[in-house]
Amino acid sequence: MFGLMQQQSLLISSLIEFADRHHGDGEVVSRRVEGDIHRTTWSGVARRARQVAHALDGLHLGLSDRVGTLAWNGYRHLELYFGVSGSGRVLHTINPRLHPEQIAWIVNHAEDQVLCFDMTFLPLVQAFQAKCPTVRQWVALCDSDKLPTDTGIPNLISYEAWIGGQPTDYNWPQLDENTASSLCYTSGTTGNPKGALYSHRSTILHAYASALPDVMGVSARDAILPVVPMFHVNAWGIPYSAAMTGAKLVFPGPALDGKSVYELIEAEGVTFAAGVPTVWQMLLGHMMPTGLKFSTLKRTVIGGSACPPAMIDAFREDYGVDVLHAWGMTELSPLGTLCTLKNKHLKLPAAEQMRLRLKQGRCIYGIDMKIVDPNGQELPHDGKSAGDLLVKGPWVVASYFKHEGGDPLVDGWFPTGDVATIDADGFMQITDRSKDVVKSGGEWISSIDVENIAMAHPAVAMAACIGVKHPKWDERPIVCVVKKPGADVTREELLSFYEGRTAKWQIPDDVVFMDAIPIGATGKMLKTRLRDQLADYTLPDQR
Fold first, then answer.
1. 172 in catalytic set
2. For 369-395, what is each residue's pLDDT tens digit?
3. Helix locations, 214-273, DSSP H
C-alpha cells in the first residue's frame, strides 16, 4: 500500500520560486569585483535566473549539458546557481586557484559548453581557453561597457548583454529529482581530480538538513556571510539553504582580507558566517590590535580543516561568537557533521565543553558513519579507538563522474581517507588524514594535536606537522612554524611549550621555522608540497 500524497519532485527550481514568492524582498548584498556594493532581492535573483535559463535555451543546450563558472561569491554567480540547474543543465563550479593546465583538464573532462567568469579571471581564461574546444560560449560576468574589445577569446559576451534582453518569466521543466544538478571536482585526491555529480534530490535534502537547528540553524531572521567560496562545494550548500529559508545573503566577492570582511559584517548586520580557519585568522588579526568588536555576529561555522582551540577561545571569550566546528568533503555535498552540544553537555564545566567543541561534531540527519580497523572490522564508539572513517547517506557519492578512479565504495560505505574516533554520544573527532598520521614505534601521533599545541603559543601564526623517517621509530613528528609578525620564539622555547600538554613521546623532535606554509586551492595546508620542500631534511639526532 502506498501513501496517498501528491508526487512532487525535489527540484532546485522550487527553491528560487519559493524565495521569490514568500521572501521576495529578502536582501542579497554583494561586494563586486569592481569594489562597489550591489543590492538586490530574492525576487531580483529569481527574475534574472529565469533570464539565464532563456539564454541557455537560446544556445540549444541539452538536458544535463554542463555550464562552467569561474567566479567569486556574488549575485551573478547566485543567479547562475538557479538558472543553470533549474533549467535542467549542470552547474560546474571551477576553482580558479588551480593551475591553468588543471583547469583546462577539468573543463575538458566535464565537457563544459558554456563558461562564465568574473573579470578578475580574464588573464586566467586567456591562458587556457584555446585548449578547451567544447566551450561554445564564453560569458564575462560584467556590464557590457566593462568588457575589453580585444581579449583574444572567441564567442565572448558580457553577462548583462547575454541575459539582458531575455524574458523574465520561465516555465521550469519538471525533471526527475535524480537528474544531475551540479558538478564539483575534488582537489585532495592523488592523480587527476574526480567529479562529484550532485542531483536535485541530494541538493534539496542537504539544504533541508543543513538548515536544521542542530546544524547551521538558518532562518529568515539571519543575515548570512558565506566566506567559503561558491566554487568550493557550492559554498557548503548555503545558497540553497538561504533560498529555502529566505535568509539575507551577504557576499564578500574577492575581498577576503580581515578589514574587508569585518566592515561587511558590521555594515550589513551579519549574524552568521561560514569559512575556513585561514580567513578567520585574518579577521581576528585585524580586530585584535585595534580592539574592534562585533555588534551582530552570533555564530560562525568553521570547516575545511581543524580549528585551533585558541581561535575558538578568542571568538567565544573575546567576541561572544559561538564557533561551530563542521566536517565534510566534496563527496558529501559537503556536510557530514556539525558540533552542537546536547542539552546534558550544557551543565558540564567549561573545560569539558571545550573538549567537545574541539571535535568535528555529531552526524546530521541523513549521514551515517563508522570507524574500522585495517581489517575492516568496526571499532567501538568509545572516544578512544581510532580507525578509518566511512560514511553513507543520500548526499554521499556512489561513484565519480565518468567513473573516474573506479568504484570508491566499500560494501556500500564511502571511505573518507580520515582517521577518527567516535564517542558514545556520537561526537566524531578527526585525528588525522590517513596519509598524514605519524606512525612512530607502532603508535599513531595525531598531526592535528601537534599543530594545535603549537598554535596555542602566542608567537605562532601557523603550524603544520609532518612525519620524518627515523631508523628506529619508523617516523618522528616535526612541526613547521610561521611566526606572527614582530613575534619571536626559539626552537627550544616552543618544544618546552609542549611539556605537560602531551605525552613526551608525542612531542615533535624538531621545529622548522618558515616564511610561509604552502596553502592549497581550498585554503588547506599542502603537506605533500611541504614534504617536497623538506626532502633533504634530517632529524637532529641524525645530523
1. no
2. 999 998 999 999 999 999 999 999 999
3. 233-236, 238-245, 258-268
